[in-house]
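pinging the channel bc i need a second pair of eyes. not urgent but kinda urgent?? the chain im working w is below, pasted from the shared doc
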Amino acid sequence: MIYRWLKIFIKIFLGIHILAIAFIIGALIFMAMPLPFRSSLWESHTARYRMVGSVSKKVIGLHRDEIVTLLGEPHPSQGNFTAPGRGMYYVLGHPRGYFRFGVKIDILVIFLDENSIAVDCAIRKG
C-alpha cells in the first residue's frame, strides 16, 4: 500500500519538475528571440537588446537627424569609442546573462562619416 502511494508521489513530483524545467527553457528561448524595432519599446528601455539587430540594419545610411527622430537623443558620453562628434551612443543596459557582477553596461555605438551619415554600428562596453 505504501509502495503504491510512493510511486504515485514520485510520478507527480517528477511531472511537476519536468513541467517547470520546460517552462524555464521556453521562457529563456523566448527572451533571446530578436524583436523588430518598435519605438515605444526602445524609449522604455525594456527590450533594447532584443531589438539591436533590427536597429543596426535600420540606421545604416540614415543621417544623424533621422536617427535622432527614430531613436531619440543619444547618450551624451563620448567614451573612448570614436572621435568626438563622429559617433552616437545609446545605452542598452547590462549585458545579457545572469552573471553581471562587476560588468559595465553595454552601449550601441553608431559610427558616422564626415557627412553625419551612419556607416556602422557596434556594441561596446561602457
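so Residues 1-33 form one domain. and The beta strands are 87-93, 106-112, 118-125. — does that match what u expected or am i reading it wrong
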